[in-house]
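Notes for week 9. Today we move from apo structures to complexes. The key idea is that a small molecule is not decoration. When we ask for a structure prediction with S-adenosylmethionine present, the ligand SMILES becomes part of the input, just like the chain. The input block below holds both the sequence and the ligand string. Read it once before you look at the output, and try to guess where the molecule might sit.
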Amino acid sequence: MRKILSYFYPITQKIETVQNGIVEITYYNGKKMLNSAHANYSYDSLQRILKYGLTKVDLKQVNAILLLGLGGGSVIQTLRKDFNYTKNITAIEIDSTIISIAATEFQVFPSDKMEIIHADAFQYVNSTSRKFDLIIVDLFIDDTVPDAFYSRQFWFSIVSLMNINGAFIFNAALATKVSKEFLEMLQTFSTEITISFFDNVYETNSIIVGQKRS
Ligand SMILES: C[S@@+](CC[C@H](N)C(=O)[O-])C[C@H]1O[C@@H](n2cnc3c(N)ncnc32)[C@H](O)[C@@H]1O
Protein backbone atom coordinates (compact mmCIF):
# COMPACT_ATOMS: atom_id res chain seq x y z
CA MET A 1 0.00 0.00 0.00
CA ARG A 2 2.79 2.44 0.98
CA LYS A 3 4.48 1.66 -2.34
CA ILE A 4 1.34 2.58 -4.32
CA LEU A 5 0.71 5.76 -2.32
CA SER A 6 4.34 6.81 -2.88
CA TYR A 7 3.55 7.43 -6.58
CA PHE A 8 1.27 10.27 -5.46
CA TYR A 9 3.41 11.76 -2.66
CA PRO A 10 6.59 10.80 -0.73
CA ILE A 11 5.97 8.82 2.46
CA THR A 12 8.56 9.25 5.17
CA GLN A 13 9.33 7.47 8.42
CA LYS A 14 11.84 9.10 10.79
CA ILE A 15 14.14 7.00 13.00
CA GLU A 16 16.51 8.24 15.71
CA THR A 17 19.92 6.56 15.34
CA VAL A 18 22.92 6.22 17.65
CA GLN A 19 25.52 8.04 15.48
CA ASN A 20 23.65 9.53 12.51
CA GLY A 21 20.98 11.68 14.17
CA ILE A 22 17.50 11.28 12.73
CA VAL A 23 17.45 9.37 9.45
CA GLU A 24 14.50 9.00 7.11
CA ILE A 25 13.18 6.02 5.25
CA THR A 26 11.35 7.51 2.30
CA TYR A 27 9.15 5.85 -0.30
CA TYR A 28 9.07 7.91 -3.48
CA ASN A 29 7.77 6.81 -6.89
CA GLY A 30 7.57 3.23 -5.64
CA LYS A 31 11.19 3.24 -4.47
CA LYS A 32 12.41 3.01 -0.89
CA MET A 33 15.54 4.91 0.16
CA LEU A 34 17.49 5.89 3.25
CA ASN A 35 18.34 9.57 3.81
CA SER A 36 20.14 11.49 6.54
CA ALA A 37 19.19 15.11 7.30
CA HIS A 38 21.07 16.50 4.27
CA ALA A 39 22.13 13.55 2.13
CA ASN A 40 20.98 10.39 0.43
CA TYR A 41 22.56 7.44 2.25
CA SER A 42 21.27 4.51 0.21
CA TYR A 43 19.18 3.47 -2.82
CA ASP A 44 19.18 6.74 -4.78
CA SER A 45 21.98 9.11 -5.88
CA LEU A 46 24.45 7.39 -3.54
CA GLN A 47 23.76 4.05 -5.22
CA ARG A 48 24.30 5.56 -8.70
CA ILE A 49 27.62 7.15 -7.66
CA LEU A 50 29.03 3.90 -6.27
CA LYS A 51 27.77 2.00 -9.32
CA TYR A 52 29.78 4.43 -11.45
CA GLY A 53 32.83 3.66 -9.28
CA LEU A 54 32.29 -0.08 -9.72
CA THR A 55 32.45 0.27 -13.52
CA LYS A 56 36.09 1.39 -13.06
CA VAL A 57 37.29 -1.88 -11.50
CA ASP A 58 37.53 -5.41 -12.85
CA LEU A 59 35.25 -7.44 -10.59
CA LYS A 60 36.26 -10.70 -12.28
CA GLN A 61 39.51 -10.51 -10.27
CA VAL A 62 37.69 -9.88 -6.98
CA ASN A 63 37.07 -12.60 -4.38
CA ALA A 64 36.75 -10.54 -1.21
CA ILE A 65 35.27 -7.05 -0.77
CA LEU A 66 35.57 -4.83 2.30
CA LEU A 67 32.77 -2.26 2.50
CA LEU A 68 33.38 0.54 5.01
CA GLY A 69 29.98 2.09 5.74
CA LEU A 70 27.04 -0.33 5.40
CA GLY A 71 24.21 2.25 5.46
CA GLY A 72 21.15 0.60 3.96
CA GLY A 73 23.40 -1.65 1.88
CA SER A 74 22.53 -0.35 -1.59
CA VAL A 75 25.99 -1.04 -3.03
CA ILE A 76 25.54 -4.66 -1.98
CA GLN A 77 22.35 -4.80 -4.05
CA THR A 78 24.26 -3.24 -6.98
CA LEU A 79 27.08 -5.76 -6.66
CA ARG A 80 24.76 -8.76 -6.40
CA LYS A 81 22.12 -7.77 -8.97
CA ASP A 82 23.82 -5.49 -11.51
CA PHE A 83 27.32 -6.99 -11.47
CA ASN A 84 26.39 -10.59 -10.53
CA TYR A 85 29.06 -10.58 -7.82
CA THR A 86 28.48 -13.71 -5.73
CA LYS A 87 31.61 -13.84 -3.57
CA ASN A 88 32.47 -12.53 -0.09
CA ILE A 89 31.55 -9.13 1.27
CA THR A 90 32.56 -7.88 4.73
CA ALA A 91 30.78 -4.68 5.82
CA ILE A 92 31.84 -2.46 8.71
CA GLU A 93 29.27 -0.14 10.27
CA ILE A 94 29.58 2.00 13.40
CA ASP A 95 25.88 2.62 14.01
CA SER A 96 23.84 -0.26 15.48
CA THR A 97 20.55 1.43 14.48
CA ILE A 98 21.72 1.55 10.86
CA ILE A 99 22.60 -2.16 11.00
CA SER A 100 19.02 -2.86 12.20
CA ILE A 101 17.54 -0.62 9.48
CA ALA A 102 19.57 -2.45 6.80
CA ALA A 103 18.12 -5.75 8.01
CA THR A 104 14.49 -4.82 8.70
CA GLU A 105 13.91 -2.26 5.92
CA PHE A 106 16.24 -3.45 3.16
CA GLN A 107 16.73 -7.18 3.91
CA VAL A 108 20.50 -6.84 4.18
CA PHE A 109 21.68 -9.20 6.88
CA PRO A 110 24.58 -11.57 7.56
CA SER A 111 24.71 -14.75 5.51
CA ASP A 112 27.22 -17.21 4.15
CA LYS A 113 28.92 -14.63 1.88
CA MET A 114 27.89 -11.51 3.78
CA GLU A 115 29.55 -10.57 7.04
CA ILE A 116 28.44 -7.47 8.97
CA ILE A 117 30.73 -6.19 11.72
CA HIS A 118 29.60 -3.53 14.19
CA ALA A 119 32.79 -1.48 14.54
CA ASP A 120 34.49 1.83 13.86
CA ALA A 121 36.03 1.58 10.39
CA PHE A 122 39.12 3.52 11.47
CA GLN A 123 39.86 1.07 14.28
CA TYR A 124 38.98 -1.94 12.11
CA VAL A 125 41.43 -1.11 9.33
CA ASN A 126 44.16 -0.39 11.87
CA SER A 127 43.74 -3.73 13.62
CA THR A 128 42.73 -6.39 11.07
CA SER A 129 45.27 -8.60 9.33
CA ARG A 130 42.84 -9.67 6.60
CA LYS A 131 43.44 -8.75 2.96
CA PHE A 132 40.88 -7.73 0.34
CA ASP A 133 40.68 -7.41 -3.45
CA LEU A 134 38.36 -4.40 -3.34
CA ILE A 135 37.82 -1.87 -0.56
CA ILE A 136 34.85 0.50 -0.85
CA VAL A 137 35.19 3.52 1.42
CA ASP A 138 31.75 5.08 1.87
CA LEU A 139 31.90 6.71 5.28
CA PHE A 140 29.65 9.64 5.99
CA ILE A 141 28.02 11.21 8.97
CA ASP A 142 25.18 13.09 7.31
CA ASP A 143 26.83 14.87 4.33
CA THR A 144 30.35 14.88 5.75
CA VAL A 145 33.21 12.40 5.52
CA PRO A 146 34.81 12.53 9.01
CA ASP A 147 38.32 14.04 8.93
CA ALA A 148 39.98 10.79 10.08
CA PHE A 149 39.12 9.27 6.69
CA TYR A 150 41.24 11.84 4.87
CA SER A 151 44.26 11.09 7.10
CA ARG A 152 47.51 9.46 5.98
CA GLN A 153 47.23 6.86 8.78
CA PHE A 154 43.86 5.66 7.45
CA TRP A 155 45.06 5.45 3.84
CA PHE A 156 48.28 3.72 4.86
CA SER A 157 46.08 1.00 6.44
CA ILE A 158 43.82 0.81 3.37
CA VAL A 159 46.81 0.31 1.04
CA SER A 160 48.23 -2.35 3.41
CA LEU A 161 44.95 -4.32 3.37
CA MET A 162 44.80 -4.46 -0.44
CA ASN A 163 45.94 -7.58 -2.27
CA ILE A 164 48.24 -7.14 -5.27
CA ASN A 165 46.04 -6.02 -8.22
CA GLY A 166 43.39 -5.05 -5.68
CA ALA A 167 41.52 -1.76 -5.81
CA PHE A 168 39.79 0.81 -3.68
CA ILE A 169 36.83 3.08 -4.44
CA PHE A 170 36.54 6.19 -2.27
CA ASN A 171 33.29 8.15 -2.29
CA ALA A 172 34.92 11.43 -1.36
CA ALA A 173 32.10 13.85 -0.58
CA LEU A 174 31.53 17.05 -2.48
CA ALA A 175 34.20 17.90 -5.03
CA THR A 176 35.05 21.20 -3.35
CA LYS A 177 35.94 19.38 -0.14
CA VAL A 178 38.51 17.10 -1.74
CA SER A 179 41.50 19.28 -1.07
CA LYS A 180 44.73 19.57 -2.99
CA GLU A 181 46.56 18.43 0.18
CA PHE A 182 44.52 15.22 0.34
CA LEU A 183 45.22 14.36 -3.30
CA GLU A 184 48.92 15.10 -2.79
CA MET A 185 48.94 12.84 0.28
CA LEU A 186 47.34 10.02 -1.75
CA GLN A 187 49.98 10.50 -4.45
CA THR A 188 52.64 9.57 -1.86
CA PHE A 189 51.42 5.99 -2.34
CA SER A 190 51.99 6.23 -6.10
CA THR A 191 54.85 3.73 -6.16
CA GLU A 192 52.31 1.06 -5.10
CA ILE A 193 48.99 2.47 -6.32
CA THR A 194 47.70 4.04 -9.55
CA ILE A 195 45.15 6.68 -8.63
CA SER A 196 42.29 7.93 -10.84
CA PHE A 197 40.12 10.88 -9.84
CA PHE A 198 36.55 11.29 -11.12
CA ASP A 199 35.28 14.74 -10.27
CA ASN A 200 31.67 15.74 -9.71
CA VAL A 201 30.14 12.35 -10.61
CA TYR A 202 26.46 12.94 -11.53
CA GLU A 203 27.08 16.51 -10.30
CA THR A 204 27.49 15.39 -6.72
CA ASN A 205 30.47 13.61 -5.17
CA SER A 206 33.98 12.79 -6.34
CA ILE A 207 35.07 9.21 -6.78
CA ILE A 208 38.70 8.22 -6.33
CA VAL A 209 39.77 4.80 -7.58
CA GLY A 210 43.11 3.25 -6.63
CA GLN A 211 44.62 0.15 -8.19
CA LYS A 212 47.49 -1.70 -6.51
CA ARG A 213 50.27 -2.67 -8.88
CA SER A 214 51.65 -6.17 -9.18
C1 LIG B 1 26.35 6.89 2.89
S1 LIG B 1 26.13 5.70 4.17
C2 LIG B 1 26.72 4.20 3.44
C3 LIG B 1 25.83 3.71 2.31
C4 LIG B 1 26.13 2.32 1.84
N1 LIG B 1 27.51 2.15 1.45
C5 LIG B 1 25.20 1.89 0.74
O1 LIG B 1 25.71 1.43 -0.30
O2 LIG B 1 24.00 1.97 0.88
C6 LIG B 1 27.46 6.10 5.27
C7 LIG B 1 27.58 5.16 6.46
O3 LIG B 1 28.88 5.33 7.05
C8 LIG B 1 28.72 4.98 8.41
N2 LIG B 1 29.89 5.44 9.17
C9 LIG B 1 30.26 6.73 9.43
N3 LIG B 1 31.37 6.76 10.18
C10 LIG B 1 31.73 5.47 10.40
C11 LIG B 1 32.82 4.85 11.09
N4 LIG B 1 33.72 5.58 11.76
N5 LIG B 1 32.91 3.50 11.08
C12 LIG B 1 31.98 2.74 10.43
N6 LIG B 1 30.91 3.28 9.77
C13 LIG B 1 30.79 4.63 9.75
C14 LIG B 1 27.44 5.68 8.80
O4 LIG B 1 26.92 5.21 10.02
C15 LIG B 1 26.56 5.42 7.57
O5 LIG B 1 25.77 4.27 7.76
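The CA atoms of residues 147 and 154 lie 10 Å apart.
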